[in-house]
């Protein structure tokens, strides 16, 4: 339930960002697209038994799951995507660095999560290959589109 605190924090940050950075509505639409892509990727990993969620109070078969997908993971995706521009602005115009960073850091974060949460990597080889590719493309795409659409200066 602690993850529910993140939702008001995200809303407050988005209000602050909208007011002081004057982001157009299309920026928030782009963020929403990336959230859906990220959750979709995790859902595919789950559906094909590459990852699983261990039955704990914050996981499957609990009120805080939607279609077997833990809501805490969706909240993390939302937080990551919303904070991307602020945290990774130094990557703009460094698309190769963004792809390499995403390809290395993405799988490492999931691996770390296996020791902290109810996430379990079932098929490590497929996970590493799919996750490295996905996160590399995601960081590259986000950096490229935010710069191309002039959401980064």
Give a quick set of tags describing it.
153 residues; mainly alpha; two-stranded antiparallel ribbon; two-stranded antiparallel sheet; 5 helices; 67% helix
Protein topology:
Elements: H1 6-21, H2 25-47, E1 51-53, E2 65-66, E3 69-70, H3 71-87, H4 95-116, E4 119-121, H5 124-148
Antiparallel strand pairs: 1-4, 2-3
Helix pairs in contact: 1-3, 2-3, 2-5, 4-5
Description:
It is a single chain. By secondary structure, the chain is mostly helical. It has one domain (19-148). Helices cover 67% and strands 7% of the residues. It has helices spanning 6-21, 25-47, 71-87, 95-116, 124-148, and strands spanning 51-53, 65-66, 69-70, 119-121. The chain has a two-stranded antiparallel sheet. Strands 2-3 form a two-stranded antiparallel ribbon.
Tally of individual helices = 5
What percentage of the residues does DSSP assign to strands (E)? 5-15%
Domain tally:
1
Largest sheet: 2 strands, antiparallel
What class do helices, strands and sheet pairing give? mainly alpha
pLDDT averaged residue by residue: 83
Spatial strand arrangement across the major sheet = 1-4
Give a quick rundown of the structure.
The chain is mainly alpha-helical and 153 residues long. 67% of the residues lie in helices and 7% in strands.
